[in-house]
Amino acid sequence: MDWSRYRFRTTWDLHAAPETVYEVLSRAEDYPLWWPQVREVATADGESGTARLRSVLPYDLRITACGRRRDPVAGVLEMDMTGDLDGWSRWTVRAGGRGTLALYEQEVVVRRPLMRRLSVPCRPVFRANHALMMRAGRRGLEAYLEGV
After folding, report:
1. Domains plus CATH for the chain?
2. Distance CA 58, CA 74 (A)
3. Residue 104 Cα to chain centre, angstroms
4. CA dihedral over 82, 85, 88, 93, signed as positive or negative
5. Could you tell me if 95 and 13 are in contact, meaning their C-beta atoms sit under 8 angstroms apart?
6. Residues near 2 by beta carbon (within 8 Å), at least 6 away in sequence
7. What phi, psi does 70 have (nearest 5°)?
């Protein structure tokens, strides 16, 4: 088993229309406005850019993202990532729950050297850190959607 490989799957039940949620999630440059752990996003063009992420643990992750699929009809946003994390992530947005179910899936390999060295003893901590980030993102998006 590669202890530096992670798969995440999180569903957010949001009180908003799927089209609205999709539109907000498609604007990565606005994530720092509502997701506290997304510290900065710089877009290079309409399909790629860089981001700096930091949750509870005292380190930043830097990634370069490139859009791979943007399908508003299917409610899918996918991107490839390189940098401290190599892999992909995908949002799938559909009607359900309180209005919208937003499924976030991610498969990555950690490339940051210190995290790779600590991958076995700290794996539960890294997973908990990700879970805290996702919870804060959901709360932030819900508050942001109230103003949209």
Report:
1. 5-146 (3.30.530.20)
2. 37
3. 7
4. negative
5. no
6. 109
7. -135, 105
Tens-level pLDDT at each residue, the chain (148 residues): 899 999 999 999 999 999 999 999 999 999 999 999 999 999 998 789 999 999 999 999 999 999 999 999 999 999 999 999 999 999 999 999 999 999 999 999 999 999 999 999 999 999 999 999 999 999 999 999 999 8
SS3 state of residue 52: strand
Residue with tokens 């498969």: 107
What distance in Å separates the CA atoms of residue 82 and residue 33, rounded to the nearest whole number? 23
State how far the Cα of 90 lies from the Cα of 76, in Å rounded to an integer: 7
Residue 133's identity, in one-letter code, is M
